[in-house]
Amino acid sequence: MKLNKLLLLLLILPLCAFSSLHKYYISVTQIEYIEEKASVQIISRIFIDDFERLLRERYDDGITLAGENESPEADAYIGRYLSDKLKIHINGADMQLKFIGKAYEADVMKCYLEIEGVQSIQTFGITNRILFDVFEDQQNIIKTKINSKQKSFILYPQKDYYMLKFEK
Known about the structure:
By secondary structure, the protein is of the alpha+beta class. Helices cover 23% and strands 40% of the residues. The protein has one domain.
């Protein structure tokens, strides 16, 4: 039942995004555990203009993302912000995120992160507070593929943490 509601939301949300009545603030984070590589690979998709606004408010009011005029310190700011707002706990331990880089696709920035040395996952907890400090109605959609199981959920300022448990 929850999956049906999520699918309906994901289908309707893009249609509503073009409405002039209200702008929606969303990001989508995909997380996949690659057991053969002992690696958790993460891709976060965030609207460029929203992230640029955040970086200007938080770090440098002259920063520019995308294009020829991109600020040289952009990657450092992006990596610092993501490691501050995206927290992952595997098997009860805090994990260190490695910011690999970013790519631009139309009006979206794709941020690539990785956690190395993950031998197995019994519990997976995630806190995603990306853009919550700028937009009070921000929602972060999380899609996971861990231990051959897929799960999707939405985090928002009042509920920014989710825990997945896997049987051994």
